[in-house]
C-alpha cells in the first residue's frame, strides 16, 4: 500500500508540473522573496541579482503582459554596507499601486515605507521610523485589495486608497499585529487576540475575539473573516455565525477568494472549495495568491499565473 501511495504522489506531482507548462509565466531577475496579487496585477519581490546588491519590487500587469520595476534607488541602502544589514521585509498591492517596507542601519534601524506605480515608478516615502536594531518592526504592512492598502504604525491604522490618497486613519485599542482587506473593508488584529473589521469609512463593523496567539493565518473575503487555527482548523466568522472546516495539520493557509482556500502543503499549492470539500493540488510553488479572476504563484525565479476557470477546473474537474 505504501508503494502505491508513493506512486500516486509522483503521478500527481508530474500532472501538476505538466499542466503548469501552459501557464502565463515571467522570470524574476532574482529569486522571488514575496508575492502579492490585486485583480490583474501581480507584485513580486525580486532578490539581489548580478550587478545589484538590493532586492526590489516588480509589477506584472496581466492585462498587458508588461512587467515594470518599481523604485529607482533600490541599491542605495545595501551599497552603503550597513553594519546590521538592509532589505525589504513586506510588500502589498492594490490595483497597480504597490507598497513595500524597507530597512537599513546599525545599532539603530531605519524602517521606511514606500509606494510606487508603473506610471510613477520612483519610490515615494510614506512613513519613517527609527528604532533599536533588536526591536520589532514599528510599521506593519497589511494585505491589499483592489481598493485599499492598509498598514499600521504602532496602534494607528492608516488606509491608503489605490490612487495614493489617505482614505482614513483609525486608532486601535492596542498594538496592531496584522491587517488584511477585502473590497474597502479592513480587518485589524490587535495584540491580545482581538480582531476589528472596519467599514470603508473606518467604523467598527464587527469585533472577534481569539485566544492570544491562536490565529496562524487569515484572510477577509465575501463570506467573512477566514482564519487558520492550530491543527489545520479553519473557521469562517460572519457576525455571530461561525463555520468550521479543516485542512491537513501541516498545511499553511495562504489566501482565500471566491470560496477557494489556497494553502501550501510542503512544496505544493492546493486549492479547496471550503463549502463542498473538494480539494486538489494546483501547482508546485513556494508563494501563492488567489483572486476571483485567477491564481498567481512563484518558485525560484519563475512567476506564473492561471485563470480562474483553469483553477476551478483543477479543483473540480468537469464530468
Q: Could you outline the blueprint of secondary structure elements for this entry?
A:
Blueprint: H1 2-20, E1 24-27, E2 32-38, E3 41-46, E4 56-61, E5 67-70, H2 76-79, E6 86-94, E7 97-105, E8 108-116, E9 124-132, E10 139-141, E11 148-153, E12 156-161, E13 166-171, E14 176-182, E15 185-190, E16 194-198, E17 204-209, E18 217-221, E19 224-229, E20 233-238, E21 241-246, E22 252-257, E23 260-265, E24 268-273, E25 279-284, E26 287-291, E27 294-299, E28 302-307, H3 308-315
Antiparallel strand pairs: 1-28, 2-3, 3-4, 4-5, 6-7, 7-8, 8-9, 10-11, 11-12, 12-13, 14-15, 15-16, 16-17, 18-19, 19-20, 20-21, 22-23, 23-24, 24-25, 26-27, 27-28
User: Sheet with the most strands?
Assistant: 4 strands, antiparallel
What percent strand?
over 45%
Radius of gyration: 20 Å
Q: How confident is the prediction overall: mean pLDDT?
A: 93
Q: Give me the oligomer status.
A: single chain
In one word, what is the shape? globular
Structural class: mainly beta
Adjacency order of strands in the biggest sheet: 1-28-27-26
> Fraction of residues in helices?
under 10%
- Uncertain segments are 1-15
Number of strands: 28
> Span between N and C termini?
28 Å
Number of DSSP helical runs: 3
